[in-house]
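Pilot study result, target chain (536 residues):
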Amino acid sequence: MSTEIGKILGTEDAQPLDFWMAVAPDQLVQLDDVVFVTRSLPGGGCVSLYGIVDTMRARHEGAKFDSDVFLSEQGIFPLGHSTVAHVSVTRIEPEIFVPPLPGLAVFRAAGVDRDQALFFDSMRRKFPLGLSRDGELVYGNFEFLDGSRGAHINISGISGVATKTTYATFLLYSLFNSDVFEDDVTNTRAIIFNVKGEDLLFLDQPNSARKPETERDYARLGLTPRPFSSVAIFAPVRKQEEVMLPDTGSRQAGVTAFCWTIEEFCRERYLRFLFAEADDETSHLSAVIANVEAALAREKNVGNYETFDDLVDFICLSVSHWGAAAAGTIAAFERRLRAAAFRVGHLIRGRVSDADKHRIDWKREQVTVVDIHNLHDRAKRFVVGVMLRRMFEDKERMGTAKPLVFVVLDELNKYAPRDGWSPIKEVLLDISERGRSLGVILMGAQQTASEVERRVVGNCAFRVVGRLDMAEASRDEYRFLSTASRARAGILKPGSMIVHQPEIPTSLLVQFPFPSWATRVSEISKKTSKDPFKGF
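Predicted structure:
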């Protein structure tokens, strides 16, 4: 039931899209509270204005000097207190744009009124984004994520504090365990690139370090706290080892070592992804790369090379015969190729027994984790570029947007930087601009959105921020935040995010629960039968 919490202020202008309210002395009002006021109209009828409290202030009434506060506390000069709140209007029903009149009662919105204020009542397919500060459900409109009316999510925040990847995995868990996919949930897929530490290698293990309130929070969200049920984990093969073992530390069992064969590298034209620093797709260096790729695709005996270094030697001997180019350009090509071979060569092998077993199959399980945290940046870019291009081409061949594929990629600024061109950036631009029609949804994250290609960020329907550096928060990329929200972003605690979605004109603060899946070895329950470390 809605409760009266104050009156429309008469000393400040009230407008159709924002107003001030005086808070009743016996009521507690905070930022993010959802409120509404109803005004009668001349000639009959009424209009309701719904909104969210985004600014508050308290002051002494009747004080003339700053030092009057001391006189008031001593009882010499009695002064009254006043608390007022500013409300940004989110919805007007019916759409008659008139200001609320001073003295009208303002109510805290609950139930149906709250759903109307936040447009939850008009969301045909919705999923939990988290909980509001007062423990109420906050929903996202799935039609702005699945490509129907929009797609993609971008998450910004300081590394280690903003919990960007943790929130991205929570959103996946929320989606996979809600009913938004209807009959497509079993075929829906997610690819997660693990770029830092080994936190994401335990998504299939229950978290024994869950906090006491975890069960309660998941219950409020309509979810059951448990690990992801269908997970495949891939890690790069170790260097200089004939035995194909994954290059991981805290987990070995249940992890598949991945690599590519030289034949596949040549046939699929993956050479370009070794040259992430190419200046422009029309540059002389890019022309040489394209010529070499075409020549390698025609070669019949590339599968006979034992090592990638052997292939590199062959390329360097032949490149001058595969197309006209200046000697300086060819020298630059060879120099960069050999530098890349040193960092990436162990991932491209001559003869691999059971090559299909060591190929990343993103269709095998619902969630595919690709661990690249131990790789050099050049090798990371290669893996990300190859994986995304292959997946995108697979989706193009399917010719249908269903089922959806979610791609979780942190450090987006490294793969789609604002300046310059690279093959990986081209793939990510393709996903951001055409992925919606193909059912490929990008969930990108980075510390600073100002360093990411504008077209990638601009195509994201959902914009999320965790703790932000205040200088970063002042950039134009965060204009979707109000002044108050920008200030709050500088003090957000882990587990709290500010979310903006197209249907709601203001950003909402959401809190998400502690992960119900393990994020490190120490959190894995020793009692679980799925413990992959027994005997180690």
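One observation from the pilot: Residues 126-225+364-523 form a domain with the Rossmann fold fold (CATH 3.40.50.300). A full batch analysis is planned for the follow-on phase.
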